[in-house]
UniProtKB/TrEMBL annotation:
Belongs to the metallo-dependent hydrolases superfamily. Adenosine and AMP deaminases family. Adenosine deaminase subfamily. It comes from Clostridium amylolyticum. The record marks H221 as: Important for catalytic activity. GO terms for cellular component: cytosol. This is Adenosine deaminase. The lineage of its organism: Bacteria, Bacillati, Bacillota, Clostridia, Eubacteriales.
Length: 330
């Protein structure tokens, strides 16, 4: 299969993990931002995580420099536009991009300024390319719960006008869902969808709690349901979609190698698996490359691919009319 030519949908992609290295240098120079180096090779070494990362925490350290240059309206517009330009080039038809607004207010922007700027970048790309997209608002698991209330309440003006969901991301500790029950209730009451990073680094029970306590409709990664039968069964029985990111999962040690990734077993057992990049730059990947690499190990059939694609369409936080159009493409 020529995966580049096939239509694709991506549901799990972080904006700050997908910034072009050349753009980081250019913005730093234009906005007088001091970064560790202005040599492109040095920057790549600092922001691209190796396959032999020791942990999720080491992987997450690669985001520091991109966030430094994403503190102005113009930089946010540009980064969003370029991500969608890159995605369209590999025939992605729909992309949900996530980022943490609170990470981009260090130089005076409001969270609504941040969201509006990213939306402007997305819309500019949509006008030029055959791609559509929406935003997921992420919150790091180490933030106080009350900070989430303020952001999601203020951002309701964008709800269903480019913003569709709320996410919890970052380093994963056992039982984190217990800290965010009220925030999740508030988000749902306001009309946001919910996707939660859980089960990425060895704690399958976190997936169970994200679903039962927070009401997650999708799970970011979810690899460790393999070690938690109760979580596995609830994901399967409720049709919860897993946002799988193979290269990232190897880097963060969710799996030892791609060959040991359980996604294909999940797929064949009827679990709704989708394929994603997680972070295009940090993981040095594209959705095409992710598909190519898993094909080498698992020899996907066209029916496997259609299943993954349609899982993505059905789980996307979009209206039925857009889903119908995406279904028709395949």
């Amino acid at each position: 299969m020529d995966f580049k030519l096939l239509p694709k949908v991506e549901l799990h992609c972080h904006l700050d993990g997908s910034v072009r290295p050349e753009t980081i240098m250019d913005i730093a120079k234009k906005e007088n931002i001091e970064i560790p180096s202005y040599n492109i090779n040095d920057i790549k070494k600092l922001i691209i995580a190796p396959l032999e990362c020791k942990s999720l925490e080491e992987y997450l350290s690669r985001f520091q420099i991109p966030i430094m240059v994403m503190q102005s309206k113009e930089s946010l517009r540009r980064v969003a536009y370029e991500l969608f330009e890159d995605a369209a080039e590999e025939n992605i038809k729909y992309l949900e991009v996530r980022f943490a607004p609170l990470q981009h207010v260090n130089k005076g922007l409001t969270t609504n300024d941040v969201i509006e700027s990213v939306l402007e970048g997305i819309k500019a790309a949509e006008e030029l390319y055959n791609i559509k997209g929406n935003i997921i608002l992420s919150f790091l698991k180490n933030v106080p719960e009350e900070t989430i209330f303020e952001v999601i309440e203020e951002a309701t003006q964008f709800l269903n006008h480019g913003v569709v969901a709320v996410d919890l991301a970052g380093a994963e500790d056992e039982g984190f869902s217990l800290r965010f029950i009220e925030a999740a209730k508030k988000a749902v009451a306001l009309g946001y969808k919910l996707t939660i990073h859980a089960g990425e680094n060895g704690i399958g029970k976190n997936v169970l709690e994200a679903i039962e306590l927070l009401g997650a409709e999708r799970i970011g990664h979810g690899i460790y349901i393999k070690n938690c039968p109760t979580a596995y069964e609830i994901v399967k029985s409720k049709g919860i979609t897993l946002e799988v990111c193979p290269t990232s999962n190897v880097q963060t040690k969710a799996v030892k190698s791609l060959k040991e990734h359980p996604f294909y077993e999940f797929l064949k057992d009827g679990i709704k698996v989708t394929m994603n990049t997680d972070n295009r730059t940090v993981s040095n990947t594209t959705l095409t490359r992710e598909l190519q690499e898993i094909d080498k190990e698992f020899h996907l059939t066209i029916e496997d691919y259609k299943n993954i694609y349609l899982n993505s369409v059905e789980a996307a936080f979009i209206d039925e009319e857009t889903k119908k159009a995406l279904r028709a493409i395949i």
